[in-house]
């Protein structure tokens, strides 16, 4: 319904919001499409840095839940000031949005948690923003490998005050974990 290049352009807070954060190329926009069953709703790309604004998607009319697709963290090839601007935009939104019920922090199954993910988690802990880790691209690794990453990531997540204890492994490609993620979104938005 709206795209916000800076915080000045945010839509009025009208309903519970759920945000999707994570490193560039982790699959935020793809996951949003899988969740909504709409292939081209959020723009995706193989090139990191596709999403450059906060993009708001209303679920229901009048909106019951608003999903927020965000620019990625840690995109080294982009101009430094641009990366900085995105990071401030994302962090300020996550810290300051009263209607935000949960941030899903996406982590690539193949890579596990990286320093920048831990930074986001620390920031969310400090700001007492509810968040939940989601593994993406589960189709890209073997089930045995996925089980290991899931265990390691769950263990790290347990050390973080504001993190939800349960992790969800997903694939936007095969649809695995999407039903669980929808349930988590509903729980977060309605509780
Ligand atoms: N195999 C597989 N590929 C995926 C999956 N999710 C995303 N991708 C691919 O990963 C690339 C990046 O996906 P995006 O959804 O654009 O990632 P993003 O996190 O929104 O990236 P930025 O907007 O740049 O921060 C695209 O080429 C997608 O097709 C998945 O579950 N499985
Ligand atoms: Mg994107």
Automatic annotation (TrEMBL):
Pfam families: MMR_HSR1. Residues 14-191 form the EngB-type G domain. Keywords: Cell cycle, Cell division, GTP-binding, Magnesium, Metal-binding, Nucleotide-binding, Septation. SUPFAM superfamilies: P-loop containing nucleoside triphosphate hydrolases. Its cofactor is Mg(2+). It comes from the Bacteria. InterPro entries: G_ENGB_dom (IPR030393), GTP-bd (IPR006073), GTP-bd_ribosome_bio_YsxC (IPR019987), P-loop_NTPase (IPR027417), Small_GTP-bd (IPR005225). The keyword Iron-sulfur does not apply. Necessary for normal cell division and for the maintenance of normal septation. Belongs to the TRAFAC class TrmE-Era-EngA-EngB-Septin-like GTPase superfamily. EngB GTPase family. HAMAP family: GTPase_EngB (MF_00321). This is Probable GTP-binding protein EngB. It comes from Sphingomonas sediminicola. The lineage of its organism: Bacteria, Pseudomonadati, Pseudomonadota, Alphaproteobacteria, Sphingomonadales.
